[in-house]
Each structure stands twice: as C-alpha cells, then as structure tokens.
C-alpha cells in the first residue's frame, strides 16, 4: 500500500457511519451483507447507506458482487490488512516488536 491509498482508506473510515458499516462487514465475514440487511442492522436510511458504501468501495475497502437481484457487500480484508501493515511497518524503528497476546498491540512502543 502506498501513501495515497492509505490516505484514501483512512479518509473513507474517518466518518462514524462509514466506520460502523465497515466494521459490520468485517464482522459478517466472507458471506458479506446486502444493503437492506446492513440498513436494518445499523438503523440507517438506505439512500444514506448507499452513499457510504460507495465511498468505502471507492477507497477499495469493500467489494460488491451481484447475486441475482441482490448486491452483496464484503469487507476487503487484504486492503484492511494492507492499511494496518502500512501504519505499522516502521513500528519499533524496524526492530522486533513484542506483541501482547491478549491485545495484539505492540508493548515495546
């Protein structure tokens, strides 16, 4: 991931509704969710949800698959992991990090 892609992903996630949508898709796993299920789960208007899904897709954080008359949205885990990797690639000044097993957070930083 490069800086431009990271900024795009972070910008898309820098909105409370979009962050909630993305987290719901991460929780849903590879099965994904339809917009109607997402709207019901998150109690958000469908037209508002559509706008947020478009922004997340533009940033490459979600994928869209048409299944019959339904659209299935899924979190793009490789992009999410790429963003996390980009943010942490120089953690501990390039040394080996000591990660807490309970929190998966670097304890040496």
Features:
109 residues, two-stranded antiparallel sheet, mainly alpha, 52% helix, Arc Repressor Mutant, subunit A, transcription, DNA-binding transcription factor activity, 5 helices, 2 strands, WH-like_DNA-bd_sf
Q: What's the short version?
A:
The chain has 109 residues and is mainly alpha-helical. It is built from 5 helices and 2 strands.
- Strand order across the largest sheet: 1-2
Q: Supply Rg.
A: 16 Å
**H/I helix tally:** 5
Give, in order, the helices and strands.
Answer: HHHHEEH
Structural class comes to mainly alpha
Net shape: elongated
Largest sheet: 2 strands, antiparallel
CATH superfamily: Winged helix-like DNA-binding domain superfamily/Winged helix DNA-binding domain
Chain oligomer state: single chain
Number of strands: 2
CATH architecture: Orthogonal Bundle
Count of spatially separate domains: 1
CATH topology: Arc Repressor Mutant, subunit A
Mean pLDDT: 90
* Beta strand %: 5-15%
Uncertain parts = none
Helix content, binned percent: 40-55%
What is the CA–CA distance across the termini?
Answer: 23 Å
> In the CATH hierarchy, what is the class?
Mainly Alpha
Q: Strands, helices and their partners?
A:
Blueprint lengths: L2 H11 L2 H13 L6 H8 L3 H13 L3 E6 L2 E6 L1 H12 L21
Antiparallel strand pairs: 1-2
Helix pairs in contact: 1-4, 1-5, 2-4
Give a description of the structure:
- The chain has 109 residues and is mainly alpha-helical.
- The protein contains 5 helices and 2 strands; from the N terminus they run ααααββα.
- It has helices spanning 3-13, 16-28, 35-42, 46-58, 77-88; strands at residues 62-67, 70-75.
- The protein has a two-stranded antiparallel ribbon with strand order 1-2.
- Strand 1 and strand 2 (70-75) form a beta hairpin.
- Helix 1 packs antiparallel against helix 4, helix 1 packs across helix 5 and helix 2 packs across helix 4.
- The model has no long low-confidence stretch (mean pLDDT 90).
């Amino acid at each position: 991931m490069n800086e431009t892609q990271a900024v795009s992903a972070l910008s898309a996630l820098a909105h409370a509704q979009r962050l909630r949508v993305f987290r719901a898709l991460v929780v849903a796993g590879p099965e994904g969710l339809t917009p109607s299920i997402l709207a019901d789960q998150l109690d958000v208007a469908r037209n508002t949800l559509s706008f947020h899904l478009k922004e997340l897709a533009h940033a490459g954080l979600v994928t869209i698959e048409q299944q019959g008359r339904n659209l299935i949205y899924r979190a793009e885990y490789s992009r999410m992991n790429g963003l996390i990797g980009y943010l942490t690639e120089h953690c501990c000044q390039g040394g080996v990090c000591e990660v807490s097993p309970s929190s998966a957070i670097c304890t040496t930083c």
